[in-house]
Amino acid sequence: MTELDVGAATGPPKGGPRRVRTRGGPGVPLPLLLPALIGLAFLIVPLVALLVRAPWRSMPELLTSAEVWQALRLSLVCATAATAVSLVIGVPLAWLLARVEFPGRGLVRALVTLPLVLPPVVGGVALLMALGRNGIIGKSLDDWFGITLPFTTTGVVIAEAFVAMPFLVISVEGTLRAADPRFEEAAATLGASRFTAFRRVTLPLIAPGIAAGAVLAWARALGEFGATITFAGNFPGRTQTMPLAVYLALQSDPEAAIALSLVLLAVSIAVLAGLRDRWMTAG
Amino acid sequence: MTETPDTAHGTRNARAPHRTPDARGHGPDGSGTGLDARLVVERGAFRLDVALTAAPGEVVALLGPNGAGKTTALRALAGLTPLSGGHLRLDGTALERMPPESRPVGVVFQDYLLFPHLTALDNVAFGPRCHGATKASAREQAADWLGRLGLADHAGAKPRRLSGGQAQRVALARALATRPRLLLLDEPLAALDARTRLEVRSQLRRHLADFEAVAVLVTHDPLDAMVLADRLVVVEDGRIVQEGAPSDVARRPRTDYIAQLVGLNLYRGEADGHTVRLDDGPSLTTAEALSGPVFVAFPPSAVTLHRDRPAGTSARNLWHCEIAGLETHGDQIRADLSGELRLAADLTTVAAAELDLRPGAEVWATVKATQTHAYPV
Amino acid sequence: MTRTARPTGRALQVAGAGAAVLLALSGCSSSDDSSSAASGSSASSSDELSGTVTVFAAASLKESFTALGEEFEKAHPGTKVTFSFGGSDSLAAGITGGAPADVFASASPKTMKIVTDAGDASGTPATFVRNQLEIATLPGNPDTISSLKDLTGPGLKVVLCDKEVPCGAAAQKALDASGLKLTPVSYEQDVKSALTKVELKEADAAVVYKTDVHAAGDKVEGVEFPESADAVNDYPIVQLKNTGNAAAAKAFIALVQSAQGQKVLTGAGFLKP
User: Which residues of A touch B281 (CB under 8 A)?
Assistant: First the structure.
């Protein structure tokens, strides 16, 4: 016997009035509040100690020193350039990892994050072996074009990009995975090639993730020490960035080192706070 | 997005042949215009195999339960899911190997997928831009489309500021702006609330009527399908179980699913004159005199319920049943009955109260022969 | 920076090894600090020594001190020598910052002075070896470098240690003494990094210590230069005030200064004081 049943069943209406999200209710549970405050203190106290012990009296003298400005300018230029390099090659890489199925993708993803766990000094040595005058690629660069990268400002940018790019790639890949790939399909049905879809649809959609990743990469590049000094060496005005200046000052004049660190901190806080207001509150 | 195959309701011994004769008249005409496709998509244990033809100007609705493969069929037409076999020709051109961006196909997605970072105008201008129009010309075309769909005032709005109905029309304008030869609509009304739906449905009907090329829409809502489409293609479990004009399909359902959709009780049996002996149940008396295997259908509203065995009733179809369930639909109550015959009955809330109906209660159900409809399998 | 992980509960360890005796001993030892560390406390019977000696030593001492540590442990069963090798400045900063160490061997009097000025040393530091600069060149010396002046030639990539670290200060002293002006491609943060740049053939030459050239084996070639005599580096060693094992610390210093110790050190390229 054939079964039969009720007529047309219409689903419940979708997209009803949006529920208002309540934020930060009055009672923050103690098991969350306490560790949170400890966490905050853990991050803040060392910085406070730096401020307390800072040689405020010799500050003006330090801040007018040409060498400090030179190092600071070099730091900012190189970190920005490294971030730009990371964006140009890191965002497509993130797209590849998030959107294209290929054998060994898991392995490639692990390789991308490798610079995060690699001690930066080892990263610097690895860069020397790859791009150094005697490196597997660097040798040809030298022989064919007369280009040597170690001990140059370009070398600083490369070292910083090597260490900082994984932060960008991971951040952008995460955003891409969370973004709805069907927007790209919709673009395709409208006649957009995959590249056009990426440029005009995906890129604007994941812009906040890219911004966050870029800021992270920039901050990491700005503080980069190990890979930079190993790959690019240390020469004032050319490869001596602030972290290098801080480290070497620490050898003889810890007070000067603290002062330099504070300058670096102040500049990064100013830049990050500025960017945050601009880009990252839009969410 | 893609539906996962799952078995639809109940047994399906009333399955219809693959294609019904009445669909044959709708194929592409001699000049090779319109849609001519056989879509075969295999994914794991699921296999979709449907043949679709449509003439320019025709609106075809793919109707079926969730997981039947409707959306897969739509994606295959758009080129978003590759075909495992079959063919796909549109206006005489083979599309099988063409990437989605090269196909003259426009899609209105279920949740519209309007680009959130672009205004309504730029969403609609996106297609013309991709097809080589200058920015100014693309915007001009977009403004024109928005105007046609009554959205001129919302050209500068971002999608999140649009109501559901407006967003749906922007999505339609965006799809039409590329001047597709095949328009695909995936559950075009599913994302709307009941009231908006009514309004948008009639608007959409007008726009589809104006559309000169082939339109294929996917829906699980029979009302949408019947209002919007010239022809229904019912898909279950990856296969076409019935197709034809909406009124035909509604009057002569061939599966439980369709019968349920159009709100009919459906049985299959062996006819001998006015009597139909059901395959595993009692006999039914019908208005038509037929012989051989037949379907018998009648709407739930044709069923009358009694607490006591009615005496002297003219109804010749009388069964002793038990209430298996009760469901309220507005001021109507639908009773699900089991017992001698499984059937659905509609009655008013007042009647239900008078009869003191509750699950487990025993009732007598009667149906007049004149309200039944029998037709050959 | 610290290479060897220090056992955290040193006090406990010592207590377990017979605290009373040891405490008495160490009290006794520190009372005759005034006597030179060279005085042979190693003459005292070895079985009185036990526990751990922690030595903070300049990175250039790594090979020779590790060998001496093993000898010490062999000669005094029950003792354990742990090392922390690093830049002298960092080590000095660690000691003045309260890092628990028994002996400090520095690569320069300047860094030693940081420790003595802070009052963390027990007694007067004694110079136990000296180190002389040498030019490290690529194997086979392809650029035929034979003097400090050759390093100023055009197109040659030379790395120096930063002026803030001892090897850099010494190199600068030698350059100043000979009136030469040398622009390197980099001022490296320590002598090992400077040497690494030559080992990896990124630089053509580096001015480093004789001992470093020695330790690098055939990966670099050493070229002596007369000006290095003007910049010989003294390595002072001292027992630290904060020691928990003064007897053993004293004995280790004695070993370093003994003929046996000197043999190991000169074998690594150091000069006798």
Answer: 1
CATH of C10-130+234-267, one of 3.40.50.150, 3.90.220.20, 2.160.20.10, 3.40.190.10: 3.40.190.10
**Other residues' Cβ atoms within 10 Å of the Cβ of residue A250:** 21
* Cβ contact B221–A190 (<8 Å): no
In this model, does residue B222 exceed pLDDT 60? yes
Residue A26 has pLDDT above 70, yes or no: no
Query: B10 vs A5, B68, B259, B260, CA distance in Å?
Result: 10, 14, 12, 11
CA distances from C243 to B298, C1, C120 (A): 102, 20, 10
Q: Within 10 A of B68 (CB to CB), how many other CB atoms are there?
A: 29
Residues of C in contact with A229 (CB under 8 A): 188-189, 193
B175 and B207 Cβ atoms separated by less than 8 Å: no
Which CA distances in Å does B290 have to B247, B275, B371?
Answer: 22, 8, 16
* Class of domain C133-231 (CATH, top level): alpha beta
Q: What is the pLDDT of residues B55-89, one digit of tens each?
A: 999 999 999 888 889 999 999 999 999 999 999 99
Say yes or no for a CB contact (<8 Å) between C200 and A247: no
**How many CB atoms neighbour CB B186 within 10 A?**
23
Q: Please state which of the ranges A195-204, B170-179, B305-314, C211-220 shows the lowest mean pLDDT.
A: B305-314
Mark whether A and C touch (3+ CB pairs within 8 Å). Answer: yes
Chain C contact residues (CB < 8 Å to A) = 87, 89-90, 93, 157, 159, 162, 164-165, 184-189, 193, 196-197, 200-203
Same domain, B203 and B329: no
Task: Report pLDDT for C27.
Answer: 39
Structure tokens at A5: 């049943």
ipTM reported for the complex, 2 dp:
0.75
Beta pairing class for C205-209 and C133-137: antiparallel
Residue A107 has pLDDT above 70, yes or no: yes
The per-residue pLDDT for range C46-80, each reduced to its tens digit, is 457 788 999 999 888 988 999 999 999 999 988 99
Q: Of the segments A182-186, A252-256, C20-24, which one has the largest average pLDDT value?
A: A182-186
Domain that holds residue B359: 264-376
- Provide the whole-model pTM: 0.70
Q: Which two tokens stand for residue C65?
A: 């001190």
Q: Which of B214, B238, B260 is the last residue of a domain?
A: B260
Q: Does residue B201 lie in a domain region?
A: yes
Closest residue on chain A to B259 (Cα): A4
The answer to whether residues A272 and A222 touch, using CB atoms and an 8 Å cutoff, is no
Token pair 């003889």: residue:
A252
Contact C201 A133 (CB under 8 A): yes
Over residues B126-143, the pLDDT tens digits come to 999 999 999 999 999 999
Distance from CA of C19 to the nearest CA of A (A): 37
Interchain CB contacts (distance < 8 Å): A and C: 66
Q: Radius of gyration (Cα) for chain C, nearest Å?
A: 20
pLDDT recorded at residue A19: 45
